[in-house]
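Predict structure. Chain length: 417.
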Amino acid sequence: MSKSIVAIVKGTQEEAMVEEAIAYLGGLSKLIRPNATIVLKPNAGHPFPAETSVNTSPALVAAVIKVLRKAQPKEIILAEAAAIGCDTMESLKVSGIYKAAEDAGIDKIIDIKSDKDLIDFAIRDARSDINRVLLPRFLVEADHIVNLPIFKSHVSMVFTCALKNIKGVVQDKVHAIMHFTDLAAAMMDLWSVVKADISIADLIRPAEGFGPHHTTPIHMGCIVASKDPVALDATACRMVGLDIDLVPYFKAAKERGLGTFDEKLIEIRGQKIKDVFKQMWLPYLEGFGAFSEYDIRAEDSCSSCQGLLAFTMEKLKAMGEYDKNAGISIACGRKKKLPASLKRGKDLILMGDCLRKYASEGIYVPGCPPGEPLPFWAITDREVDISDPDKLRARMEKETAAFDEYAKKRRKTAIGK
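Prediction complete.
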């Protein structure tokens, strides 16, 4: 059986690193056809600046554009659909990706969310609730898709890299369904109809900690590239000390036949894993059992609300509010009726638009999903008051600083550094 090739390159000059990685994969002429249309898919899901490592490094995006231009393509398009509730163009601009791509000579930048020319695809043998998907015509008709993820901690799936990044080629309606079903299976269902030809992952400054809401970047100085996204993700996990058996991605990918995570079937070129290894702190492995002091009812909820809730519980600990509010009930997700055992009134937090019809029975937190600080404020204040933006902004800055210190202490306790 042939092996999947994964290139690991360490350096300080992004363009040279990309060229080296491409060479390890066979060279540009073997990967990209002349006069081709190429679509680049970065990770630009949230409006955070480059230094947070929430999104792909703008410098890496620019480097990839410059290197691919040497293959004499007809057109290079950068395309993204930001996370639900986020504006794509705002995310691209705040992250620095928009300007970096323009300066590097990108031909087009497209917001997939606003694209109207869509093609309806049936997904054969769907493992999730995604039986059909609407994909942009320009993406489907492109000669090559180049996937440009960043490796970071992620509350919904422990981490995100090559496999999860392709989720950003769908619009919000499908995106929402994916979060309400088995997310790992839904991601692989999507990969069955839209595959990236190459993935080049940003592990220059990957993010550990409580991503994507609160990332802690660390320096590794690497990019990882492969035609096999499963092998790439597995290799990236091994580079940061994450046991792939703890991640639901890989079983779902195996069932779909999308690639290999078996070390014996992966050929590493360039740097060796042991030479670039850096233990990352990826805390989202325990589930809601870690918050047993609260009555949490998250069944039938999407992974977005579950992730926000898990982050909120950690934020309560960071701000010294966890013990003060222990014993309250928190509900999220679609429910035909509220369980009789749930508390009512100010000791019941109702998270998300799915529970709007029960708003009178507790403290209702609007949004799909709610904005990051709102569930925390609902718990601590027993109300949701967003009437004074300046006051809220100052409060968020103070809370972010406190959470930074909390995260540092948690990391030191977890991995001893």
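Summary: The chain has two domains: 4-276, 288-415.
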